[in-house]
Amino acid sequence: MRTQMTGRKMFFAGKWVGRNRSIDVRDPQDNSLIDTVPAATAEDILQCVEEAKEGAKMAAAMSVHERMSVINKAAAYIEANQEVYAYTISREGSKTIREATKEVERCIQTLRISAEEARRIHGETISFDQMPGSENRVGYYQRIPIGIIGAITPFNDPLNLVAHKVGPAIAAGNAIIVKPATVTPLSALLLAEAFAEAGLPARVLSVITGYGSEIGDALVTHPAVRMISFTGGLEAGEGIVRKAGLKKISMELGSNSPVIVLEDANLEEAVAATVSGAFWAAGQNCLGVQRVYIQEQIMEAFQLAFVEMTNQYRVGNKLSEQTDMGPLISEKEAIRVENIVNEAIEKGARLLTGGIREGAFYSPTVLTDVPENCTISKEEIFGPVVLLYSVENLDLAIKKANDVEYGLQAGIFTNDVRKAHEAIAKLDVGGIMVNDSSDYRIDAMPFGGVKKSGLGREGIKYAIEEMTEPKVVCFKL
Q: At what angle do helices 212-221 and 42-61 cross, to 10 degrees?
């Protein structure tokens, strides 16, 4: 395990290679240089795909117990080096060291679940004799790997979201080429290091660093790449769909998640969960709480408690155990958030707390009375900003919660099971958390959204289903 990184190489079909051009990886907190990584070219992607063709054959030929062993060894390697992994996540991204430590723990869990699910890739028998004339036929189907998977991952979970693609891909017997976020490539390279140390056959996994504008299309459009697994923004996702051609697509494209708080809810729990859900990882979280609809009878009490807890949030040095929230991923992103908030205030929104930017830092911000014609009312903010709305009843809360183009997850706080089930039936989202915020997920559950929040589902078992195909076998006796 490297503890000092000076000119990190990329993982090209099982080999660590450099390139003449490099990309600086900087800490968004102070813009200090952490390391450099190679700037790959489209030609590198083409060569990598050729290597991955052989890797796919090797991966498919691995027995289930071999796949399980490699994945478990990779998880053990990360576990033995947790501090280095957490430090890297925190330095190159936005997470505090406490948030980064939790991500490492989740990554280990993701890989171990992947190893377990490798033993549960099952088919079924088929009753061919259901059709007249086929009485002498028996058979089944089995699930087979699809071949080469292209994975494009974001900056906000630079280790675990890569593991969510790599773990299932290897468990299913595929080769995979990962293009990590340009600003946070180091964590993905550390994941590759874990698999290299675990004995994964060369050519099965590649982590190629570079600018998306230079290498993205070569990966997405290559006919030998049979699936693209993408986590990122809506605009980029729509571009991939237009370019990809005839192949599988799995996408998680974010959201502006709603939470409903009814008058019978436990107010203290609702406030604590929604504050955490709004400001985890500086709000750069696809599940982050952006809109909270509070029944009017408790609006004043909820608002006061929410602002009070928000004001207790400690913003500062990411590497301090006492810090609750660090910077955004860049000053550019902080300026974007600042402009969106200022637009809302200019149009009549009321600022309850926050709204202060210092470089890449943007203070936890709470708005109310936000007009519907504001950008922040409909689009994903991807920053530490939350909107509080007063609503008359559950029906109105559901209507407003659904009145956006996204639908990843939602939360509802209530002690009335009938109202909970009404929300479950009517909220147009991929997941509903009852008496919790939208910002809750375990790595084994099916994860994904509806509308413009994405296509398909992640979560290990469900990702494996996306990354395999059924092959039918029929015997004529």
A: 40
Query: Measuring CA to CA, how many Å separate 42 from each of 118, 211, 248, 249?
Result: 33, 10, 21, 21
Catalytic-residue membership of 469: no
Nearest CA-CA partner of 292 in 215, 224, 352, 223: 352
pLDDT tens per residue across span 364-414: 999 999 999 999 999 999 999 999 999 999 999 999 999 999 999 999 999
Dig out the tokens for 72 from the structure: 């478990």
The structural domains of the chain, with segments of one domain joined by +, span 10-253+453-476, 257-451
Which one is catalytic: 99, 286, 333, 374? 286
HSE on the CB side for 117, CA within 13 Å? 27
Residue 306, token pair as written in the block: 């929410």
Residue type for position 409? Q
Alpha helix (H) ranges present in 358-476? 375-378, 394-402, 417-426, 460-466
Beta bridge mates, 152? 179, 230
* Strand 10-12 to 15-17 pairing: antiparallel
**DSSP H helices in 157-223:** 160-171, 186-197, 212-221
Pick the CATH number of 10-253+453-476 from 1.20.1560.10, 3.10.180.10, 3.20.20.240, 3.40.605.10: 3.40.605.10
Q: Is 43 a catalytic residue?
A: no
Which one of the listed residues 51, 99, 103, 252 is annotated catalytic? 252
For 266-303, the pLDDT digits (tens) are 999 999 999 999 999 999 999 999 999 999 999 999 99
In this structure, are strands 409-413 and 257-261 parallel, antiparallel, or unpaired? parallel
Ordered DSSP codes for 312-336: T--BS-TT-TT-SB---S-HHHHHH
Architecture field, domain 257-451: 3-Layer(aba) Sandwich (3.40)
Would you say the CATH fold of 257-451 matches that of 10-253+453-476? no
Return d(Cα 185, Cα 155) in angstroms, integer: 8
- pTM reported for the whole predicted model: 0.95
Where helices occur in 62-155 by DSSP H, the ranges are 64-80, 82-92, 97-118
Bridge-partner residues for 291, per DSSP?
A: 258, 387
Within a 10 A sphere around the Cβ of 306, how many other Cβ atoms? Answer: 26
